[in-house]
């Protein structure tokens, strides 16, 4: 019985081997081209090995085989059925919308479509524009720091205090008999009756040395604790000072007259640089306007950030029956307002950041959270050697 079983097993194995060979031949015959069957079969096998995608499957089915005695026996034989595919092996490796950029080992891989390529070019253009905009904004900001604009405000002040008044002889020398001056009297206008009245105006006599010149001067209203105030403008608030000035020798060809400085009480004016002058035989009438300037940075001319100055406008009225060595100086306010000038910057660091963030958000659609997500994606992009994740975050 064992020998018979072994014989049956041998017959069955032989039949199985023959069936597999027949199946292999059938598969080969049905899959190859009649023109080059060997080359086609080889290319198909290589494609299956490369892509690991089978082009056909084998199904084992029972076949009725007849032996030499005429009896039919069942034998398991594989049937090779090709898979249906519309594309050829070469065509299956390609996609019409996919552009494959091969990279060497160790480099990043880039896989993008034509639409993504166009988007990438647009990104470059937008980045260049935004970079130019940021550079220009920063340049304008730096320029504005050195060239601030000013705002002017008119603030009514009642009463409005007069400035300190320093009157000096134009001729200045250490030992000079015609470089002196003498105050005769001072007058004001009675606001009730409109008449001119003499009054006592506190003053001091001093010598000021500037640039090698010695000036003999009278200083009025220089006590910061007891300042003279104006309650009226124009003629009603006028104060006049009458001085007697020695005449200069004719042969010396010296100038004759006084110079007047209006300055902040408690300070010494730049007498040598003064440009307000008064001559004889006329009423030298100075109309004053007070300015308070607030600066962002100190200057050489005004080291303090807040400076006070009085601008004057000269008008003259001819005097009759006046001696030629008498010089009259009058002054009054044009208005009882303080003109406050404040330096302001046209741009600030907050405004600069707002402009930049607004442009970046509008042109590139980038916000803080998107930048954070993009930054967190960088380690993964480096590890996997692909920028696809970062691209998807920003697009």
From TrEMBL:
InterPro entries per record: ENaC (IPR001873)
Location in the cell: Membrane
Segments for region (Disordered): 1-34
Annotated Gene Ontology cellular component terms: plasma membrane
GO molecular function: ligand-gated sodium channel activity
Coiled coil: none
Domain of life: Eukaryota
Keywords: Ion channel, Ion transport, Membrane, Sodium, Sodium channel, Sodium transport, Transmembrane, Transmembrane helix, Transport
Protein name: Predicted protein
Protein species of origin: Naegleria gruberi (Amoeba)
